[in-house]
Hints:
- With 414 residues, the protein is mostly helical.
- It folds into three domains: 11-140, no CATH class; 163-285, Cytochrome Bc1 Complex, Chain D, domain 2, CATH 1.10.760.10; 297-399.
- The protein is 43% helix and 1% strand.
- The protein contains 19 helices and two strands.
- The protein has helices at residues 14-33, 40-55, 57-60, 105-110, 113-116, 119-122, 131-135, 148-153, 166-173, 183-195, 236-245, 247-250, 263-275, 297-308, 312-317, 343-351, 355-360, 364-373, 378-399; strands spanning 70-72, 77-79.
- Strands 1-2 form a two-stranded antiparallel sheet.
- Strand 1 and strand 2 form a beta hairpin.
- Helix 9 (166-173) crosses helix 13 (263-275) and helix 10 crosses helix 13 (263-275).
- The termini are far apart.
- 33% of the residues are buried.
- The model is unreliable at 1-11 and 404-414 (pLDDT under 50).
- The structure holds heme C (5 copies).
Amino acid sequence: xxxxxxxxxxxxxxxxxxxxxxxxxxxxxxxxxxxxxxxxxxxxxxxxxxxxxxxxxxxxxxxxxxxxxxxxxxxxxxxxxxxxxxxxxxxxxxxxxxxxxxxxxxxxxxxxxxxxxxxxxxxxxxxxxxxxxxxxxxxxxxxxxxxxxxxxxxxxxxxxxxxxxxxxxxxxxxxxxxxxxxxxxxxxxxxxxxxxxxxxxxxxxxxxxxxxxxxxxxxxxxxxxxxxxxxxxxxxxxxxxxxxxxxxxxxxxxxxxxxxxxxxxxxxxxxxxxxxxxxxxxxxxxxxxxxxxxxxxxxxxxxxxxxxxxxxxxxxxxxxxxxxxxxxxxxxxxxxxxxxxxxxxxxxxxxxxxxxxxxxxxxxxxxxxxxxxxxxxxxxxxxxxxxxxxxxxxxxxxxxxxxxxxxxxxxxxx
Length: 414
Ligand code: HEC
Ligand code: HEC
Ligand code: HEC
Ligand code: HEC
Ligand code: HEC
């Protein structure tokens, strides 16, 4: 099944190909030295026998022997997995043991192996023809086969122990709102929207700047993580799961909130976060959608409504990313901070200072917000204080049941 494509490839792929070329040379040398340990010969002989018994000697004679690879220059991959996994493209071996089993048909429909190889989805070292180096994990190689074995080692809390593979699916499918066959990733994406991570993080080109831009966070090397407060496994995956469950346990002075995620949700988000990698992938391998996460028409309409209502100032200024101001009909998707309708009273209770003092000398999250994300002049702070007073007055009018200013979209009065 040797695949050759002579089509010209973009210049930027050349360094990748050069590296792969070098790896091939090295692996050929290693191969020559360690030939006696090769067990792929055993798998090939067994598969030939299986085919001969089931389909006849003529079919068996069609099976290629020696090292077999799928070369996909556009993806910078030369995958030799089928040297052992010879049954992948054959029908009739659906129940055979690995590595002889017929591949499940569904994933290969939109991604034929001639065009996608194996490692773009599965991970692993494509050039290796020994099982251990092919599957990993191997030291200094961060791309092991994301299969059941690793899922079990990482204690995945889902029934689908091979779900880590979806990390690789989403390198290409990152702009899909949902991807069939990637439930764990889909769950992570739903949580990012529901919890409003974008209040503080840029993700796919959209969001706030209080936390780091997460667009390529999956490219961070394990050495770049501070693992000192992490107990148990010291992997990037374990770090993210622990951080998502309780950010302060790993970064004591962080303003990232504790969302009280359970293990499954934290793992779904960790899988998603680690999928945010740069892919050495030609554009025609990317599903054809806009290069940013689109807002739904409902989200756009809701924002438009709030932008023209009595709470317009809070929307325009960006406070509504984290705060609802329900008395003015402003609803925050993320609700990371408290409702500001009663802030005038609450800052006194919570922080022991007036709202004027609080905005001029903020603490906690608001000190980061006002120094980095929404920088207000003194005059603008005065406007903010004025608007907070208006919101409170409106809240009191509504609480008293008195007729107040008409608020489009506000909850009906009792
Ligand atoms: C030397 C032969 C050999 C090579 C090369 C090889 N495999 Fe395997 N593979 C096996 C055998 C044997 C098994 C079944 C036993 C096991 O799981 O280790 C297996 C099992 C698997 C499984 C199922 C196990 C799991 O954890 O989910 C996957 C997926 C897999 N291989 C993918 C790959 C990929 C991708 C490559 C290429 C990077 C590859 N293999 C290269 C021999 C090989
Ligand atoms: C489009 C992505 C994709 C490509 C390309 C792909 N696979 Fe798979 N493969 C999958 C999915 C999805 C499954 C099902 C995983 C599951 O649910 O256990 C699977 C299952 C497998 C299994 C069985 C694993 C198990 O857990 O039982 C093996 C082995 C395997 N693939 C090897 C290969 C080899 C070898 C190639 C290249 C010739 C390849 N795959 C190409 C997505 C892909
Ligand atoms: C190397 C990039 C790449 C990887 C990895 C990849 N895909 Fe895809 N996928 C594509 C492309 C390109 C298409 C074709 C989309 C199109 O026609 O717009 C596609 C199509 C699909 C479709 C059909 C979508 C449709 O609208 O018809 C599904 C479902 C899908 N992929 C799921 C997966 C899953 C699940 C995985 C992981 C097991 C995966 N993909 C891995 C690039 C990739
Ligand atoms: C109130 C602001 C805020 C919100 C909301 C927030 N984060 Fe964070 N996040 C931060 C800050 C600040 C950091 C940097 C300090 C740290 O690591 O905790 C951070 C760090 C991170 C990191 C580590 C980045 C790196 O470079 O290692 C990830 C991943 C992350 N956040 C994911 C999320 C996800 C997912 C959500 C939504 C469920 C979310 N954050 C919501 C403020 C926030
Ligand atoms: C990124 C999220 C975020 C943004 C954007 C944001 N805030 Fe906050 N705000 C918070 C959080 C979280 C708190 C709760 C205090 C804490 O945790 O430190 C808070 C507290 C407050 C309080 C104290 C309220 C109380 O009831 O105690 C006021 C007042 C306030 N913010 C005003 C504003 C204004 C005005 C804006 C827009 C200029 C704004 N905030 C933008 C997250 C945010």
